[in-house]
Amino acid sequence: MIKPWMFEFFRAPVDDDVLIPAPVDGVTATEVAAHFADFWQRWLMAEGLGYEGIFFSEHHFGPGYSPAPNLLIAALAPMTKTLRLGVMGVVLPYSSPWRVIEQIGMLDQLTQGRLEVGTASGIPPEMAQVGLGVAEAGERNAEAQEILDWALTHPGERLTHHGKYWSFENLAFVPLPLQQPPPRWTTVVSEASARRAAARGTKICTGFSSVDRVTEVFDAYREDAAQAGFEVSSDLLGLRRNVIVCEDGERARDLAARQAEQVLAMFKHAQDAVNHGPVPDAPQQSRGDSPIHDDEFVAGTPAEVAEQIIDQCRTTGAGHFLVMLDAHGGLAANQEAFELFGREIIPVLRSAAPVGEVAAHASGGTA
Known about the structure:
By secondary structure, this protein is of the alpha/beta class. Helix content is about 40%, strand content about 15%. It has a single domain, classed as Luciferase-like domain (TIM Barrel), CATH 3.20.20.
């Protein structure tokens, strides 16, 4: 079984023919309210359509309406029963880790134990706007992860910490999370970040890169997980992709080509000094590669899309698939794709033969 998740960027309003929005100026509060209402109805449908859960994203100053995604989780918690809710991921360098720990406890109680805890180090273009350098963000992220990991694996114990960026004595965290502990995720795009996640014992999720590249990243995680003493099952690995699905497969592929062009233009538009991809240790930072590979865009009819997803998950060993469905040409078209994915693709993913606990790799694994 492949568990299907909705990855929600929560894009700002755009004209129907714009697939990737630029930062929006001049949108009225009334228009924003209508936009929230449209997305709210979509999120409330996710549970009935079979989505495993929703991962919101945290972004600032740009074409998204999710600078505080934990508020969205708190709002959805009482409106859902089985849908798991999380952020992929909370940008730790922007927050005090003790506040993040307190929010986790609150949210896990509000969701009645359905919280997923994802963290990220952020993206350089956003960091630059608040005067945060990549090196400092990396240090803050590592220190915050250390604090967060200790608190979640030592529930009820008081925490003392003295580090470079935070220092405190004998903190008591309330309320305790209902899950002991909630599932932890780390966004990764390189072997280095995957190895660090393995050392911490968290699940990992990646995207952007080719299937071959994802396989290399997952293999690095498996290698260090073995050294840390645990076996990597498909349940520890997530793959995030942009999906364009239509009953007309040619239209889906045309939309995917347009989306790829717009995404690449968006990356190229950023200043070279800060355009290092999705996280500070992105592989293209040192190699000069394009940050996006063609494998990122899965397009076609429902049957074609399901086949591509299953193939990518089996090749990489991922047991979770996080789908982005917001590039179909406007809210109505995105809603149609969201429902089509739920009706025709999710049942296929859930009934797929189990993904191998270790995918077949050039490194010598077995399926």
